[in-house]
Amino acid sequence: MSKNWLYAPLGWMAHAVALLPLRVLYVLADIVYFLAYHVVGYRRHVVEKHIADSFPEKSADEQRRIVKDFYHNFADYIVETIKLLHISDEQMMRRMTFTNLEAIRSLLDRDIQVMVLFSHCFNWEWAPSVTRWLHPQGDKPVEFGQVYRPLKNKWMDGFMLHLRSRFGSRNYPMNGVLRELLKARREGRRTTTGFMSDQKPIWGDVRHVIDFMHHPTPTLLGSEELASKLKMGVVYWDISKVSRGHYNIDVVPVADNAADTATYEITDRYFELLSRTINRQPALWLWSHKRWKYPYAFEPDGTPVYDSKSVR
């Protein structure tokens, strides 16, 4: 309780800031950009190295432009996420649009649970507003949820869960999502569940390494395995930034029944689609995340091995 009182002023401040119109918040975002990039240099060496390694074909000036654009997007992400505290449904639907939602509806109409694979591309925190676009059909309820890793800071964890449920979606901790989806199936609830699958796996659980953005990259396999176990339909959310404060998500079908796919097929397809998203708008991805902290290398025969000499 004492810790809650200590953090309470942050909550009050966030609510006050969220009352400001976005045009004012973007002025604040420009200030955040200047501080993060020019003054503090927040993880700047990580961002610069990741972008240089991922786009070796680009000139130094082009790479520098991507780095700066990333920090602009990161600053926008901060104020846009806080704005979730006080943004109307109508304004959100103007700013976050979806195309090809029929790919999800067609699965739900067949009583197939849907897995949505998306990524840390800005602004992923606005994606749960899909609930305002996907409405219940017939007499069976439809719910949207997202899987998350609980934060160590309990106050911040609760604050982010509040933001992510702003439009009526549910939040499932990683260790409880299977139980929740099985329960939803027994109760006849149609579900569309989002999985952020671009993070690194837990150390010691590396089973599949791919070539992603010019890096040997260990992958998370839990999403694919869960989808296969529950015979879920799988789609990918291809996010793009239309203009400042305006995004679109295009729904790309991946599999009607994950149980019918080959091992690693869904994971490989996901990273192929994510690569296209990143290459189209490189500054949208969260480059400050230490995705390649535990690097691997490929032997001449293609076998992945842990590269201890290149630990970042």
Residues in β-strands, percent? 15-25%
What string, H for helix and E for strand, traces the elements in order? HHHHHEHEEHEHEEEHEEHEE
Q: Helix coverage percent of residues?
A: 40-55%
Determine the mean pLDDT.
Answer: 92
Spatial gap, N to C terminus? 38 Å
Extract low-pLDDT stretches: none
Characterise this structure.
The chain has one domain (2-310). Helices cover 42% and strands 20% of the residues. The protein is built from ten helices and eleven strands. The chain has a seven-stranded mixed sheet with strand order 1-9-8-2-5-3-4. Strands 6-7 form a two-stranded antiparallel ribbon. Strands 10-11 form a two-stranded antiparallel sheet. Helix 2 (22-39) crosses helix 4 and helix 3 packs across helix 4 (60-83). The model has no long low-confidence stretch (mean pLDDT 92).
Structural key phrases:
312 residues; alpha/beta; 42% helix; 11 strands; 20% strand; single chain; 10 helices; 7-stranded mixed beta sheet; two-stranded antiparallel ribbon
